[in-house]
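Regression test case RT-17, inverse folding.

Input:
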């Protein structure tokens, strides 16, 4: 999978969010690659209703429907066509107890769960909670120009081995500084099942070009 996080960039918000989503859909169909997107919460309804590629939420509340002002429930996400959730990103870390509940309620509503880990130790803990995906992202490389597959290849190979030793069903994505096809290919060769990217796509002038470039690195 190529999973693209829109974060809260101006370049990937509002109508631009839908434009990127439509571009991803076209590239996915053309190259026959699995591409998913993670719009911000204000765009997720519009985007999920107008695209057929997997849409993930940037988070989820741990509550069932009810009197929970300011919450985004798994029930509501499922109702508008969202396919999964992203949890514990370096920019939005959550406590262990909350993370466990968030994974449980997401699975209850049949949402795919991707949990971010800053290192192998955190990834090992998360693997015991059985999410569908773990994204290994060293925080110091996020948004940078050097990819994790170049700067810290061992965190991918050792991380995949550790995660699979705990739960072989979990797929491992890698992120932080992923910019081109070679970054993706190297991550795949080290055992990853895909990449988790943001700024390399959202800040690009020619978004279709970079989406095709990254997707081309997938097996």
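Golden output:
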């Amino acid at each position: 999978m190529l999973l693209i996080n829109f974060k809260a960039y101006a370049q990937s918000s509002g109508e631009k969010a839908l434009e990127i989503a439509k571009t991803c859909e076209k590239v996915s169909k053309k190259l026959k690659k699995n591409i998913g997107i993670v719009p911000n919460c204000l765009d997720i309804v519009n985007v999920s209703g107008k695209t057929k590629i997997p849409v993930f939420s940037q988070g989820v509340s741990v509550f069932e429907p009810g009197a929970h002002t300011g919450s985004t429930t798994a029930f509501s996400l499922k109702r508008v066509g969202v396919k999964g959730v992203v949890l514990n990103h370096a920019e939005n870390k959550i406590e262990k107890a909350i993370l466990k509940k968030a994974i449980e309620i997401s699975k209850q509503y049949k949402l795919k769960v991707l949990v971010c880990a800053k290192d192998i130790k955190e990834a090992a803990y998360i693997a015991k909670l059985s999410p569908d995906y773990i994204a290994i992202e060293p925080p110091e490389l996020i948004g940078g120009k050097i990819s994790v597959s170049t700067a810290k290849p061992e965190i991918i190979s050792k991380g995949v081995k550790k995660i699979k030793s705990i739960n072989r069903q979990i797929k491992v994505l890698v992120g932080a500084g992923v910019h081109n096809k070679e970054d993706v290919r190297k991550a795949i060769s080290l055992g990853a099942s895909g990449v988790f990217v943001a700024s390399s796509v959202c800040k690009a002038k020619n978004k279709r070009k970079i989406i095709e470039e990254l997707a081309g690195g997938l097996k």
